[in-house]
Amino acid sequence: MMFGVKIAHSLPGRTRFxxxxxxxxxxxxxxxRSFPGVYSASYNQVTGSLLIYHHITLSLYSLKLFIHKYKHxxxxxxxxxxxxxxxxxxxxxxxxxxxxxxxxxPAVVKALSYWLSTFTAISTxxxxxxxxxxxxxxxxxxxxxxxxxxxxxxxxxxxNPGSALIITLMSTISELLTDYTSEQTKHYxxxxxxxxxxxxxxxxxxxxxxxxxxENIQVGDQVVVFTGEKIPVDGIIIEGNGTADEASITGxxxxxxxxxxxxxxxxxxxxxGHITVTVEKVGEDTSLSKIVKLLEEAQExxxxxxxxxxxxxxxxxxxxxxxxxxxxxxxxxxxxAMSMLVIDFICGIKLSTATALYASIGRAxxxxxxxxxxxxxxxxxxxxxxxxxxxxxxxxxxxVVQQVIAxxxxxxEDVIRLAAAAEKNSxxxxxxxxxxxxxxxxxxxxxxxxxxxxxxxxxKGISTWLDGKRVVVGxxxxxxxxxxxxxxxxxxxQNDENVIYVAYDQTLVGVVxxxxxxxxxxxxxxxxxxxQGINDIIMLTGDKRTxxxxxxRRLKLNWYHAEALPExxxxxxxxxxxxxxxxxxxxxxxxxxxxxxADVGVTMGAKRTDIASEASxxxxxxxNPEMLSELVGLSxxxxxxxxxxxxxxxxxxxxxxLFGALGIFSxxxxxxxxxxxxxxxxxNSARILWLGRExxxxxxxxxx
Length: 704
What we know:
By secondary structure, the chain is of the alpha+beta class.
C-alpha cells in the first residue's frame, strides 16, 4: 500500500492497481499513457482498478509515484476551488440579501434571506473563528482571527449579517492574494528550474543508445542529448558540441557554446547540436535540485521586519478591543464601538510584509540569484560596506600569459618549456596559464628526471630536476633566497602584473607575466553600488601588494588588503563589521570563513566551490557582477515597499477608526475600507514579483 494505491497483481509487462474510488480519476488513462514505457492504461470506475501494460523493465515504484503525482495535482485543483468558495458564497449572498432587504418582498422571504446570510457568514468563517477561540484558550491572549471572530459575532448580534459577510469576503481575498503571491513564487521557481525530463538516452556497449528512465541513470554512465532536449544530468561533455541555454541555472540570457571538456547542467536546454555527456551528478545531487531546495528553505526563514510586523500586530489586538470599549462607554452606541473591531491594523501589516519578502525572493530567483532567507533581504538593504575577493570575483579567475621575456642565450619557448616541466602536474591557476601557453605554441614538454620530486614552497614557488639540473619557477623573493640574479629584467615588468621567474641550473632563463582580466561588468557594478549609497568598497586578495594596488586603482575602490590568508580575510570582515553591515563576495574555499562572518555572504559565478556556497547567504548563479547592485537595489525597494505598506495601513485605518468613532462610517463601510486597504497593500507588495527586468534595480527603485 502506498498513497492509497496498492498492487492487485503484477506480471512482467502487466500490472493492476487498486485506487480509491472516491478519487474519480477520469483522465488517469491519458495521464499514464504519457509515462515513458507505458503502452496502455484502462481505469475501471466500478472496481476502482487500473490495468496497465508496460515495458517489462519499468519500475512499479516509479508507476506508483506517477499515480501519486496525478492525485496530488487533482487535490491542488480542488484546494484552489475550496479557497474561492467563501468569496463566491459571501459575495453572492451579500448581493441577494441586500436586494431582498431593499425590495418589497414578503417578510418571510426577507427573514429567510437574513438567516441564510447569518449561516453563510458563520460557515465560511468557521476556520477563522475556531483559530481565534482556540488561540485565546491556549495562549491566554487574542490574535488577528480573534478580532475577526468578535467582529463577525458583533455584526450578527446587531442583526447586520451584511457586515459579517463583507468582513469574511474581503479578509479572505487579502489572504488569498498573499497565498497567491507565495505560490506564484514557488510556481515560478519550479516552472523555470524543474527538470521535467522523464527519460534519457544512455549509451550502451558498442555505442548503442537506449531510452531509459532518468532515475535509472547512474554516475559514470554516458548519455546523449539531441537538439531541443533538456539535459537530464550534471556532467562533462566527452564528444560533440552545441549551444546550451543555461538561463535556469546561471541566470545568463545568452546561450553558451559548449564542446568537449565543458561542464553542462541538468535543466539546461540544448538549442543546437548534439553532445555525449559523462554523468557526474544525478537526481537530488544536481545543481538544479540543490537550487530548488535552497529556494524552498528560504521561504521558511523569517526576516526581523516580519517579527516586528507580527509583534506590532499582536499588540494591536488589545488596543482594538480597548478602543471598542472606550467608544461604547463614551457614546453608548454599539455601532460605533463595533467600528473599532472591524477596522484593525493587523491584517495589512502581517500579510503585506510576508508577501513583499516572498515576492522579493522569487524576483531574485528570476534574475539568477538564490537568497537563502528573507532575513538576508533586509540585511542587504542596510549595507555600509561591500568587500570583494579578487581572483574569480573581480577577475575572471582564468589567468593567461601576457608576456614572456627571455634572458640572453635563451628564447621565449625555452622559458615556457622549462616552466611547463615544473608546473605540468600543478593545479594552481598560474600553472594552467603556462600549460595553455605551451599548448598554443606547440611546445614539447620535457620529461623530468626519474624519481625527481616536485618541491613546493608555499607562497614562493616550485622546483624539480631536469637532466640533473634544478628547475625553479617562482617569485622574486624565492629567486633571491636561492641567490639567483634577477635585477637586469626588473625594469621591463609592469607593477600591475603577476610575474613569475624561471631559472635553470642557478641561471635566470626568463620571466613570465600572468594577467587575470577584470570581469566584464565589474566597473558598472562598482559604480551602481556607489550610486546606491554604499561608500566603502574594499578588495581582499592573497595576491601581492603591487597587483592589488593597481587593481584597486583601476576600479576606483576605497582600499585593498593584499597577501591575505583565509583567516586574514575573516579578520577584515569582522573589523569592517564593527561600523556597519558588511557584504562579502567570493567564490573559493579560502573565502568560506570570510563569507560565514559577513552579515551577507555572497558567492558568484559558475566556478564557485561547494564549501563557499554552503557558507554564503546568497548564491549568484551567473558570472554577471551587476547582479550585486541589482540585489542591493531589490532589497532596498522591498524594504521601501514594506514601509509604504506600514504607513498606508496606519493612515487609512486610523482615519477609518476616527470616522467610525464619530459615527460618520457604519461598521459595514468601515469593514469595506479596512479590507480594501489590506488588499491594496498586499497588491503593492506583490508587484515586486510582477515588475519587468531593468538594467539595475536602482532604476526600478527610483521609478517606484
